[in-house]
Amino acid sequence: MSNSLVQPVAAPLRRGAMLIRGLRRLGLGFALVVVAILLATATGESSIALDTVLKTLANQLLGTTYELDAIDRGIIWEYRLSRAIVAASCGAALAVCGLILQSLLRNVLVDPYILGISAGASAGAVAVAIAGMGAGVLSMSAGAFLGAVLSFALVVGLARMTGQIILAGIAGAQLFHALSSLMITKSANAEAARGIMFWMLGNLSGVRWDDVALAVPVAVGGVLVAGLYTRALDAFTFGSQSAAALGIAVTRVKVLLIALTALMTAVMVSMVGSIGFVGLVIPHAARYLVGVRHAVLLPASAVMGAVFLVLSDILSRVVVPGQVLPIGVVTALIGAPAFALILIRGARTP
Amino acid sequence: MICARNLHYRLKRKALVQDVSFELQDGEVLGLIGPNGSGKSTLLRMLSGIFRPSAGQVLLQGRCLSQWPRHEIAQHMAFVEQQAETHERIRVRDAVELGRTPWLSLLNPWSAQDDAIVGQAMDALNVGHLSQRIWHSLSGGERQRVHLARALAQQPQLLLLDEPTNHLDIQNQLTILRLVDELPVSIIIALHDLNQAMRCDRLLLMHEGRVFALGPPARVLTPDNIREAFGVNSRLLHDPETGQPNLVFTD
Fold this sequence. Notes:
Chain B: GO terms for molecular function: ATP binding; ATP hydrolysis activity. The structure holds two protein chains of two kinds. Chain A is mainly α.
């Protein structure tokens, strides 16, 4: 085909404008996440004025010397801020994992939780932390990663035999949750105090700055790596064979992105347990807002996942006075009806 | 252009394609015909590099396909499946833009030229007016035309088409075939309708995974070949007005 008729219409200008628009949107997304985190830092059992929050942050980050109550400072800096940042990282990572799985498997009803990857990661983390497997050699995150990969392999194997990936995922999730419960119940280890509920529903209590140092690089790095594959993910729109025909090295891309998903899920689960529905619902909401092109959809999912989980965490702390709900309860209360809506809509459109 | 050398494909010890060899000339339209399960689709997938042959080679411009990087193969040939579907609410324009995938990279981002190529491909397949439509709102014929436009946006020298007229009504079948005829590229097209196959330059008749006959339509579509491969009797009639040959079948 000849391109002689084609006029190169101000290509550099257009590309520059697109870049600026993209950066502006990214900036907006980042600002939204920051606002959500600040909100989370100010809200809780004892409400702290935003002014105090900002002064505390200024003292810690900019070296200012505002006079502040030591307890407020402790709550804000040691407790709420680290927790909110980990929540944001988890939300972004889980949403992006869900998006990748939905695109690669071409199924809008999958995410790390439904496919049993989170349960596998839980079981792996529990095996290391509580049952003491691979003690000294494996970290909890590494154990979680092995558990995640194992459960995914099992679920995919079962799905290949039956053609039912969702049911295979449910079977896998049940199996690995049961294994976790068994290991926790059998041991009288101090770690067991975190309990079965923690690993099944997720919980952000007990999160500290150590966790931030792991969660943020994994979430940001994971989203950036996934960002290199947005075009490849687009190419899966019409299936694997179509992607191959479009020049995608299908096996390599699938292995790499699924390993990335397992890694991100595993790191998050080993810190906060398995939180459901974020990876399932957020990509749908993002598609609804920004369309199906992954170059936009992926960062949008990351931002929305981050904001969603931070807001869910706030809810989990204020909904029942004097009690903190496991965050998985909140995400499920929002996510399950959304899941139902997706099912209903899927049944209506051919 | 492309050359198949003793291609074999086995799946679970069952031979789906056996010892297929042929060479396609530049600009040629080769029709693949044969009964269901004769190995047409499998052969097309080997030629496109989606399936790796169990034995034998595919040579693209003299070089073995397995030595080509995936995206370079896609710059040379495009493959349109029988009915590729999606659950995504993708717009027609976006679906056609997917065809630029093999040409893009981090260092080669989307440019005005890509826009222009996509526009031309959409015009060539007469889907420009559907640009903003959502995939699910399209008819079968429109979807197939969008797939062809996407393939064309790859700027291939070779198009591999797997029964592109399947499940379409007669008007859409003829439209697709006419559009395909007009494309300035080499084409290998799997077809079910033997009368439609007559417009190809050459035909490759497959039977039980093997090449049963290869040559110009008049030499391949003989009553003997058709009886042996398809198990039906046929007669060749000529249109009283145009003189065009036409097959009629009886069992």
